[in-house]
User: Which sequence fits this backbone?
């Protein structure tokens, strides 16, 4: 009698374990799905926000480039320098010197060296 | 609690939770593996335009000449703002400060009462098919608005109730619209007859910077003011305003290229907007990024690098403005060209326009005279006549001619010189600009040879410069030349040229006889800077040999001297070469006695030329109507500044270096 009761109890506990295990698997699956879904959603939102930010920076960058280009125009530079009391003068033609590229050891120099 | 009851509770709890999670698992399985068509139908899909950027235009040093910036358009719903704002003046003042608008203007906009245009949305959006059907119905007061919001093209069907109130057929229209838009006909009918529909948004500022838009957005959020609507768009800007306007052209209000490089190189500059299919959740407020599909990839336009040097262009335009102010001619043109390569370093005309303000543009200000205006070159043409004769070996620089004391009758027609001259050598004839001597040389040369040289110097055909609307000038066929033609052509009459053709003649003389193709675009790169194409110098023809070129250089160098006709073209420190031209304008079949085209074309330095410059002044008033007085001084100031900027050593320094 006692043996039979023990056997039945083991059977029942096995069934409980199986049900418990199944529930656990279902819970883990559902929670994992919800977790992964939440994370994906978060990444999705982050990507969209970052993309919008990037677009904003690009617009800002082109805006700043345009501002800089306007600041650097010849007319503007001249006006701003004048405002600061700086008068730019172009160089005199005699100040421009260009040296032709010649061989380092010219024939004249080589001959002088030989003579020595 | 007994053991049995506890067991029952545990079993019940297990069954409940198992059923809940089983349901959940089943639903998940159904969502992913089951019939998804009905779910897919509920997902909102939108075709979104992905904006690409038009290519930029740079000068040869990489300074931007045309670029794109993003601008925000701010629209407001005055009623919504009024309802929320407690102090309208203060709000108007804050907004005005942020957007840099006059306070009264903002205040008036905020106070806008009922406008004539009423606006009532029938649906938040509709499909293209539905929009087409509504448009096809052609109902006055019903239309579809295309709104671009966050890069999405949204079609909004709307009506103007003012058109339908009291209308007999409003019920029929309501039924038709409702059937197209899948709406309740009663609701549509109610909207058609609703006199209190919202006022359509009012434009507050058409173009404000990103900074301003961000500041305004922060202000709105902070003060919780409703009724603001931002939409961004790309705007083409030209940082240098009028500078090089004729070269660049512009984009008109519809964004289409007009004139200049913008038009000529549009196929490279233009961008190709992309299209993508985006998936949103059923509420339409959150995009599923991973589901984004690209239908058409957005491609930015290519960048175009010009041969123009912005500083030289600035020098040229500054001097052109001075010329216009001092002499007050009808128009004026200057071109600066690199003689060795044919690159155009500067090109400007007056009057001009500001490409940033399309309103300042008209057909008169928009003409690029450098390639479009045709004129009789007058005495500048003698450079070609003498070059041809010298090259043929018919004359030398010392050949003497009788200049008939200023009046010569040939074929029964008189030919005058401005001053009476006796015997002159060719060298002296060029220096004094004798018409008679030039005519005699042309007759010696013969018609066929003369015509061949004119053609070889690139006249009577397009120079092939990469700018639109280039004119070919007028060169009569040899068959219709009269006996007098060579005598008149020799001094630049009976022929029309464009400034770009004429500078080509002088560049060829300066460049050892090689005529180079003029070009204005140096390089084309992708938007990221990768080279796509480089333009290289091209020899078009070699009308004269190097010896003739050397002789002509030395002859033309005597023109800008005290004894020559263009002493005002001289440049301190440099020997320059060139030729003046004063041509009477041919008006109504006769040469005008009051209207002239004066010019000076030359190069610097005379011995080893680097740049050629032409100055053409149209209708300079007397007494400064001569090429030597109207154009030569401008040539001189431009040539000096350009020589210094390009660091061309002066003759004195060169001589000293040679000795050293």
Assistant:
């Amino acid at each position: 009698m006692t043996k039979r009761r023990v056997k039945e109890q083991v059977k029942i506990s096995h069934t409980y374990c199986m049900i418990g295990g199944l529930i656990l698997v279902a819970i883990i699956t559902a929670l994992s799905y919800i977790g992964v879904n939440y994370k994906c959603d978060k990444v999705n939102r982050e990507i969209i926000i970052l993309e919008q930010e990037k677009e904003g920076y690009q617009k800002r960058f082109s805006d700043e480039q345009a501002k800089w280009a306007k600041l650097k125009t010849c007319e503007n530079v001249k006006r701003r320098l004048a405002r600061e009391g700086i008068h730019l003068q172009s160089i005199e033609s005699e100040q421009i010197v260009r040296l032709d590229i010649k061989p380092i050891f010219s024939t004249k120099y080589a001959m002088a060296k030989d003579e020595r | 609690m007994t053991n049995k009851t506890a067991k029952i509770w545990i079993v019940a709890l297990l069954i409940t939770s198992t059923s809940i999670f089983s349901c959940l698992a089943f639903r998940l399985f159904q969502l992913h593996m089951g019939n998804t068509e009905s779910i897919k139908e509920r997902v909102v899909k939108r075709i979104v335009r992905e904006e690409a950027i038009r290519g930029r235009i740079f000068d040869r040093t990489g300074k931007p000449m045309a670029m794109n910036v993003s601008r925000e358009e701010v629209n407001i719903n005055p009623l919504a703002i009024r309802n929320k704002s407690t102090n309208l003046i203060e709000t108007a003042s804050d907004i005005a400060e942020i957007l840099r608008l006059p306070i009264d203007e903002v205040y008036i906009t905020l106070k806008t009462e009922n406008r004539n245009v009423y606006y009532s949305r029938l649906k938040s959006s509709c499909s293209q098919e539905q929009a087409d059907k509504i448009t096809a119905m052609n109902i006055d007061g019903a239309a579809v608005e295309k709104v671009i919001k966050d890069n999405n093209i949204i079609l909004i069907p709307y009506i103007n109730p003012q058109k339908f109130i009291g209308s007999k057929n409003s019920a029929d229209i309501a039924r038709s619209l409702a059937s197209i838009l899948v709406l309740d006909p009663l609701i549509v009918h109610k909207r058609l007859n609703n006199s209190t529909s919202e006022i359509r948004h009012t434009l507050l500022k058409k173009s404000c910077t990103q900074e301003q838009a961000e500041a305004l957005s922060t202000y709105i959020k902070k003060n919780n003011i409703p009724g603001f609507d931002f939409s961004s768009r790309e705007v083409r800007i030209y940082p240098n305003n009028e500078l090089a306007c004729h070269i660049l052209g512009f984009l008109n209000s519809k964004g289409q290229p007009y004139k200049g490089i913008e038009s000529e190189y549009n196929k490279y500059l233009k961008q190709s907007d992309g299209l993508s299919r985006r998936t949103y959740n059923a509420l339409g407020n959150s995009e599923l990024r991973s589901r984004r599909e690209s239908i058409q990839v957005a491609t930015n336009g290519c960048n175009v690098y010009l041969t123009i040097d912005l500083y030289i262009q600035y020098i040229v335009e500054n001097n052109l403005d001075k010329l216009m102010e001092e002499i007050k001619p009808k128009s004026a043109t200057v071109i600066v060209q690199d003689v060795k390569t044919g690159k155009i370093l500067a090109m400007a005309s007056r009057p001009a326009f500001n490409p940033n303000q399309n309103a300042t543009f008209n057909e008169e200000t928009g003409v690029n005279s450098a390639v479009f205006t045709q004129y009789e070159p007058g005495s500048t043409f003698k450079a070609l006549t003498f070059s041809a004769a010298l090259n043929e070996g018919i004359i030398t620089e010392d050949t003497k001619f009788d200049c008939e004391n200023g009046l010569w009758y040939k074929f029964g027609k008189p030919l005058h010189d401005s001053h009476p001259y006796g015997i002159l050598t060719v060298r002296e004839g060029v220096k004094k600009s004798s018409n008679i001597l030039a005519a005699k040389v042309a007759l010696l040369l013969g018609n066929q040879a003369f015509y061949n040289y004119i053609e070889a110097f690139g006249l009577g055909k397009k120079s092939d410069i990469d700018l639109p609307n280039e004119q070919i000038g007028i060169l009569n066929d040899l068959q219709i030349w009269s006996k007098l033609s060579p005598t008149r052509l020799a001094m630049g009459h009976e022929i029309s040229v464009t400034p770009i053709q004429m500078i080509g003649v002088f560049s060829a003389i300066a460049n050892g006889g090689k005529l180079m193709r003029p070009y204005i675009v140096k390089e084309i790169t992708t938007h990221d800077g990768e080279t796509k194409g480089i333009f290289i110098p091209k020899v078009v023809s070699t009308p004269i040999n190097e010896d003739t070129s050397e002789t002509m250089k030395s002859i033309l160098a005597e023109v800008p001297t005290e004894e020559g006709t263009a002493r005002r073209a001289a440049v301190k420190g440099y020997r320059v070469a060139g030729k003046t031209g004063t041509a009477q304008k041919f008006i109504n079949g006769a040469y005008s006695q009051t209207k002239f085209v004066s010019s000076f074309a030359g190069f610097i330095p005379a011995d080893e030329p680097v740049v050629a410059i032409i100055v053409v002044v149209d209708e300079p008033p007397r007494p400064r109507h001569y090429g030597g007085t109207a154009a030569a001084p401008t040539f001189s100031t431009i040539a000096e500044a350009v020589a210094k900027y390009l660091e061309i050593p002066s003759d004195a320094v060169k001589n000293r270096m040679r000795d050293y």
Q: What stands out?
A: Chain A has one domain: 2-84. Residues 2-84 of chain A form one domain. The radius of gyration of chain A is 43 Å.
